[in-house]
Amino acid sequence: MVKEKEGIIHRKKTLNQVLFILGALIGWELLAWTGWFPPLLFPKMSQVFIHLWTELSGGELLQRVVFSLYIIGWGLGLAVVTAALVTTGAMLSPLFSDWVQALMAVLHPLPGIAVLPIIILWLGTGSRSIVAVIWFSSIWPLIANLHTGLRSVPTTQIEVGRNLGLKGIALVRSILLPGAFPYILTGLRVGWARAWQASVAAEMVFGASGGEGGLGWFIYKKRFFMEIPSVFGGMIIIILIGLLVERLCFEAVEVRTVRRWGMTSE
Amino acid sequence: MRNAVLVLLCLWLVTGGAFIPQVQGARAEELKIAGQFGLVYAPLMVAKARGIFERYGLKPVWKEYGSGGAVREALISGEVDVGFMGIPPFLIGWDKGCDWKIACGFVIVPIGLVTNDPNIKSLKDFKPEDKIAVPSPGSIQHILLAMAAEKELGSPTALDNNIVAMAHPDGAAALISKKGIKAHFTTPPYLFEELSQPGFHLIIDEVTIFGHPFNFNVGVASQRFYDRRPAVYSSFVNAIGEAMAWINNNKEAAAKLLAPEFGLTPAKTLEYLNWEGMNYTTAPYGLMGFGEFMAQAGYIKRAPASLEEIAFDNVLAIVGSRAGGPSEIEQIQY
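ok -> structure tokens follow
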């Protein structure tokens, strides 16, 4: 019963949101039709979608999307592994934990793109540098959330686990990880968003070599050839990928874990 | 009290110091001018230092951008009134419907593709992983590279997958430290600095590619600006001319004045100003030459059919229109 009602509310919410976005797009189109703004600065939405279609069928855009996802996968993957290692270290040694916290306090506020000039000097231009910027941008929110999450698991729960005879890996798997899971999920969400920002920003600062550029390079190039509808097209693709990953990955995982365990209300 | 001060300080930091009262002169003849970095823009620096625009009753506001594309955006958004950019970025804007024209030629300088790899002798020697820095896609350097690629490799896009976009100073730093890039398509003083590095050499230069010298930049103004503020427009053209002539007639004084801007010694600056091929001029050179190539290679939809489409009357008057076949000045526009 409750589940069904929840489903209806959920669907209604989605419908509302879709209607709102459609309305905004139509509003945009109408505003562009009035001709108050030069079409060069404010292209028609229909034009944007036509360009998007041509770019997609031309194949270049898809290649860029694949490259962006590939490079974000690398950067974010490395960041997750590093964050897991660092947090494990921090859980084992209070001294290391202090160091990590100090490092986090210093480096977390630093936007990944700000370290780009140094990374270019150390690693040169190209995909390695972009991976490094993505890694740097996403690792701090990951560590912060993992660390807080693991430490927020109540001692009583851990004690209960111990009383049930859990030890080592089993304790971590059955008590610590599920307990920290809401935080881990948040960390991954923030890390994913930061990784996108970093990859697009990095490619816009020095581009990448044309053959191996992602969506940032696509937008950057279109900007210089003044193909403004395609610039919007690139942005729409980024939004769509963001929505898809949120819906298909994060929400699906959330429903199956955190919400099923009753750790969060919505 | 202390808390209040702290809160205010935070607010001020967050808003980027916007509470500082801004001093704004509300003079009618304000002229906002967009330039870029490098020796090419020396006339603007001279005009600024010597108050040349002020002499014509203008109040110049100077803005610097990292690429012709950025200057173009500043012009389109109305952030500046006039700007300087290479002919290709100008043509891309023209092609997309920007209602603007060329107000004057602006300087001829040597442009070249420099490499730090002794094994790269010609364009054919670039491997797919060898990167070539240009200021931006669609910049004059990118288009020159495409022209050279068409001549030597058979396709204008043959090297498009090799390019990285870097502002001149960053490109020069990367080339000299041999980090990431193999070659840099650049202009003075970066060109001269790179060529004086041991082992660095020029692969190809602009005259080999284009056939003859051309304006590295052109002064660009919108038709609207030209129609509505003709007096300001002509003062602008004359002030730029005066700054050019002053450099040509006072190279030593100019070197002294410009040296701190580039972080060079006056002697080095003078050497650069006198480098073969440098020509501080407002005369139009090669205005039409890029259009045809860019249209053929697909960078723009169509090439301008005549100079009238892309240049204002003062430029047309210099070029003229000789009865019975083109004059020498007309010929060098192609």
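Chain B touches chain A through 33 residues (CB under 8 Å).
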